[in-house]
């Protein structure tokens, strides 16, 4: 694991969480006394802080002042997850090994899950490995579409799914490991011709597959680990889970 680096996406405002006069960046909202980002970085503790790049944007000083020893990349405009990862390219310009990309608002993913994903990526000699989860949670996440052989085909956002695709239980977690040498050239190929006008990281695995690179899926029964915090209700839910883990 000594040759892996990480990019943590932490630039968002979290509009739906800005209640009761709270204007903190989403990843700095507290759960059980600590920012959400604290738990993500705890899960990534097998990667050295100096090898972890946190992409910041909205009120970036709130994040940079709290997490010392980490590297930071600045996303001036929030133009999607693909654009956020592009912001970290300069920090990785001399690195062509594996990069774990994850979300700063998913505090329940464990170190074991992150490590297992990284190990599956290495074992499969993949250009990209997607962390997929099977869960009973009702979450508006993209679906993993496989071909007749069970290999990765593409990801489809929930709003774009056909009725048949909505039946797929395998959800995209938004967590990946990419080979850095493949990631950034592929990012330059994605377009923002969608309703949001954003560059989606979810488009990158399909770009890689279409150019002949190997894309793997590491799938597990992920339960509540896959919850990302977007609402006050989800913040309260993850806080209860984090408290229960301490017992």
Integer average pLDDT: 93
Q: How large, in whole angstroms, is the Cα Rg?
A: 17 Å
**Which structural class best describes the helix and strand composition?**
alpha/beta
Strand order of the largest sheet: 5-4-1-6-10-7-11
How much β-strand is present in the residues?
15-25%
Order of helices and strands: EEEHEHEHEHEEEHEHHEH
> How many extended strands?
11
The major β-sheet equals:
7 strands, mixed
Q: Provide the helix percentage.
A: 25-40%
Number of helices: 8
Report the uncertain regions: none
Shape: globular
Spatial separation of the terminal alpha carbons? 29 Å
Commentary on this structure:
With 247 residues, the protein is an alpha/beta fold. The protein is built from eight helices and eleven strands. Strands 5-4-1-6-10-7-11 form a seven-stranded mixed beta sheet. Strands 2-3 form a two-stranded antiparallel sheet. A two-stranded antiparallel ribbon has the order 8-9. α2 links the parallel β4 (52-56) and β5. The chain is globular, with a radius of gyration of 17 Å.
Key terms for this structure?
single chain; alpha/beta; seven-stranded mixed β-sheet; 8 helices; 27% helix; 23% strand
Concise structural overview:
The protein is of the alpha/beta class and 247 residues long.
What is this structure's SSE topology?
Layout lengths: L4 E5 L20 E2 L2 E2 H8 L8 E5 L3 H5 L6 E4 L6 H6 L11 E6 L7 H14 L3 E7 L8 E4 L5 E5 L6 H4 L3 E10 H8 L16 H7 L4 E7 L10 H15 L1
Parallel strand pairs: 1-4, 1-6, 4-5, 7-11
Antiparallel strand pairs: 2-3, 6-10, 7-10, 8-9
């Amino acid at each position: 694991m000594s040759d892996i680096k990480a990019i943590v996406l932490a630039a968002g405002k979290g509009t739906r969480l800005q209640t009761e006069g709270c204007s903190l960046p989403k990843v700095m909202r507290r759960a059980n006394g600590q920012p959400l980002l604290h738990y993500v970085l705890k899960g990534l503790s097998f990667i050295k802080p100096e090898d972890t790049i946190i992409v910041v944007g909205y009120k970036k000083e709130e994040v940079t002042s709290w997490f010392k020893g980490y590297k930071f990349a600045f996303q001036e405009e929030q133009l999607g997850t693909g654009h956020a990862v592009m912001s970290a390219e300069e920090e990785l310009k001399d690195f062509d090994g594996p990069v774990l990309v994850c979300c700063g608002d998913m505090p329940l993913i464990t170190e074991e899950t992150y490590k297992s994903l990284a190990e599956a990526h290495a074992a499969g000699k993949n250009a990209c490995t997607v962390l997929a989860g099977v869960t009973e949670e009702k979450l508006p996440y993209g679906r993993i579409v496989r071909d007749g052989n069970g290999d990765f085909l593409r990801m489809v956002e929930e709003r774009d799914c056909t009725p048949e695709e909505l039946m797929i239980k395998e959800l995209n977690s938004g967590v990946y490991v990419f080979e850095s040498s493949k990631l950034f050239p592929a990012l330059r190929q994605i377009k923002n011709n969608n309703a949001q006008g954003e560059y989606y990281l979810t488009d990158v695995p399909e770009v890689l597959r279409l150019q002949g690179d190997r894309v793997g899926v590491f799938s597990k029964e992920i339960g509540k680990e896959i919850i990302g915090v977007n609402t006050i209700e989800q913040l309260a839910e993850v806080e209860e889970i984090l408290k229960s883990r301490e017992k």
